[in-house]
Design goal:
six-stranded antiparallel beta barrel, 43% strand, 298 residues, globular, Thrombin, subunit H, mainly beta, Pdz3 Domain, 20 strands, six-stranded antiparallel barrel
Length: 298
């Protein structure tokens, strides 16, 4: 399948290249750097969607439109639970795309990605949807529904995943590089179903806040291994270490990341949890006074 020339002419004016500048002292800078490039898609007059890791913490955001015009943008909403950000651009003259709910997306459906290749350059690639399953990642993140595809991401993260009618199905977040699962996109209803709340408050205030500890982790056999710890987080203050194997949370065995995350998210920020960990040939219980990722990175 090839995206037709007419279809691309319809979609391209709604695509945006993003350059974000982040202060060196922002917590995200140590992970993602101080200069970030990404892609975005206009979904309303002057409003665009992108992946949250691109503009989080930005002090300056510049955008480049398909016709080589440039402008600025401001971060107006971010959702750490879904991984989306909403930006408002300085020039609202460009058209917006329609949004497609993931209920109308099926495995096997043909789709395409339009992504920035830097500034006003755009690249396109085509393929098919392979799954609509839940997805968890190593940084205390889980989507109850994601869209994975056979498409190799042709450009920078945050670009649009489109159906063949030009509607936006999702925002490309990750390159998975797995056989049959090359990219992962965040379904657009994470914005459309909560639009008013996000634009009014800058975040999802109706969602119950959930605890956060600040670790990177991977499943190892029937447990979870801490592969990294963010400085200044509850995990570091509690004395957790890279290489610790998490056996249980609050007395409940942990056999994968989902079980660990669910155990953490049962609590509110500020609550204390107890992690049973194995390290240095011994088992110990570690009390962690949890925090809030939204506040840490805002």
């Amino acid at each position: 399948m090839n995206a037709t020339v007419d279809l691309l002419h319809f979609v391209l004016p709604s695509t945006v290249g993003i350059r974000a500048t982040i202060p060196a002292d922002h917590p995200s800078a140590q992970i993602l750097g101080t200069e970030r490039m990404g892609s975005g898609t206009l979904v309303e007059s002057g409003l665009l969607l992108t992946a949250n890791y691109i503009p989080v913490g930005a002090e300056k955001i510049e955008v480049a439109f398909f016709d080589q015009r440039t402008g600025t943008a401001e971060l107006v909403a971010q959702d750490f639970h879904s991984g989306l950000s909403v930006l408002r651009v300085s020039d609202p003259a460009y058209p917006a795309v329609r949004l497609r709910h993931s209920d109308k997306v099926r495995p096997g459906q043909e789709v395409f990605i339009v992504a920035s290749a830097g500034e006003s350059q755009r690249r396109v690639n085509t393929g098919a949807v392979t799954s609509m399953q839940a997805f968890d990642a190593f940084w205390e993140f889980r989507l109850e529904k994601s869209i994975t595809t056979t498409i190799m991401n042709p450009g920078l993260g945050g670009g649009g995943l489109f159906a063949l009618d030009g509607s936006l199905c999702g925002v490309v977040s990750l390159d998975l590089n797995e056989v049959g699962h090359f990219t992962l996109a965040i379904p657009t209803e994470n914005f459309s179903e909560h639009r008013d709340e996000l634009l009014e408050h800058g975040r999802r205030v109706s969602r119950r806040p959930r605890a956060w500890v600040g670790i990177y982790c991977y499943k190892v056999e029937d447990h979870v291994l801490i592969a990294g710890i963010l400085p200044g987080t509850p995990a570091e203050r509690a004395g957790l270490k890279t290489g610790d194997l998490i056996l249980a949370i609050d007395g409940t065995a942990v056999r994968d990341r989902s079980a660990l995350y669910e155990g953490i998210w049962k609590r509110a920020p500020g609550d204390e949890i107890t992690l049973r960990v194995y390290s240095n040939d011994s088992v110990r219980d570690v009390s962690v006074a949890t925090g809030d990722a939204d506040h840490f990175f805002s």
